[in-house]
Every structure is written in structure tokens, then in C-alpha cells.
Amino acid sequence: MTAVDDQRMTEFFESLAAPEGVKVELLRGEIVMMAGPDVVHNLIVLFIARQIPPDRWYPLQTQDVAIPGESSEPQPDLVVVAPEALPEGSGRLLPVQAVSLLVEVVSKTSKVRDYVTKRSIYAAGGVPAYLIVDPFEAKCTLLTEPFGGGDQADYRTARTSKFAEPVPLDGLGVTLDTAEFGTLP
User: Fold this and answer.
1) Nearest partner of 80 among 142, 152, 160, 151, judged by Cα
2) Locate the Putative restriction endonuclease domain: which residues (predicted)?
3) In this model, does residue 9 exceed pLDDT 90?
4) Which residue has the higher pLDDT, 185 or 5?
5) Does residue 152 belong to any structural domain of this protein?
6) Among candidate residues 167, 176, 166, the one with its CA nearest the CA of residue 158
7) Which H, E and C letters describe the chain, residue by residue?
């Protein structure tokens, strides 16, 4: 895509009126629509958000993230930011520079996007920590140390933990308890 095509796609995406209950994201120039999440998914997000100390961090849901150099406006399941990093008047799009951790909970239709596409997008944006929670595999994968750009961007470090094992989120000074995370067949 050219810069003009990227701009047109972004403008079209931002003017799109999605039906109620449908999540819409722009991922590398592709508009992706998904049905609302199931209860297991929502409870995992809730259990993670409750473990983030609100005096030091804001766990935000349904927050779109702006990633410069990418024709993407993802809406992670959970965005964690330090209160002092929130820019005034940022509106719908939170600048990726303010993000400390992004969380995605895998659904039946999002596996490739969460493990491949968003991994690359978030690494290209310099997101310091990306946590993938997979209720189908009953595991969490914490990715840190982003490097590279574009489609080739990735994370140098990947730490995988099974559900019920603690997940240290060193950048937040939190150890995540995953014992309550539900699984899906």
C-alpha cells in the first residue's frame, strides 16, 4: 500500500459504524471484524485487570492504540499505562509510546492475529511487553525486548507459563496469578 492508500483506509476505518457487539480493528491495512468475546475471555481480562495496582497503573479495556509507521489501529483486550504517561486529550487513539503492557486473549478466530500479526505490529511499535493468554492451550506467553520494524519486527524474549503458574510482569512490578483463568475446548 502507498501512503495515500494507507490514509484513505484509515479515514474509511475511522468513519465506519460497526454494529453493536462487534469489535473492529485496523491491522496492517485490513479491517477485521470480530463477534463479542465469550465469558471465559472476559473473565480472564477481568482477573488480569484486578491484579494491576490502580495506584501505579491504569488497566484500560476497549482502548485503541496508535502505532506510527503501521497502518494499524488495534484494540487490545487490555492496555496498561502509567497514569503520568497518559497524554492530555489523546482521545480514541492512545499513542503506543504511553503503553507499558498489551494483553490479548486468544479466541477461536484470533489465534493467527494474536500470535503472528499483532506480535509483529506491537514489536514494530516498540511495545515493551506483550502478553498472549491462550485459553485453548491453557498458557500465557510474555514477549519482551522488541526489535526491528514492519513485518520483520519481533520480540527477543518469550517466556511461556502454564495456567496456574505465576507470570512475572517485571516491567510493572507485578506477578500475575493465573490460577483462576478458565480454559476452552
Assistant:
1) 142
2) 12-177
3) no
4) 185
5) yes
6) 167
7) CCHHHHHHHHHHHHHCCCCCCEEEEEECCEEEEEECCCHHHHHHHHHHHHHCCCCCCEEECCCEEECCCCCCECCCCEEEECHHHCCCCCCCEEEHHHEEEEEEECCCCCHHHHHHHHHHHHHHCCCCEEEEEECCCCEEEEEEEEECCHHHCEEEEEEEEECCCCEEECCCCEEECCCCCCCCC
Residue 64 lies in a domain: yes
Residue 52 in any domain: the answer is: yes
The count of structural domains within the chain is 1
Q: For the whole model, what pTM was predicted?
A: 0.86
pLDDT tens for 94-148 read: 999 999 999 999 998 889 999 999 999 999 999 999 999 999 999 999 999 999 9
Pairing of strands 64-66, 93-95: parallel
In a domain, 7, yes or no: no
What is the domain-level CATH number for residue 107? 3.90.1570.10
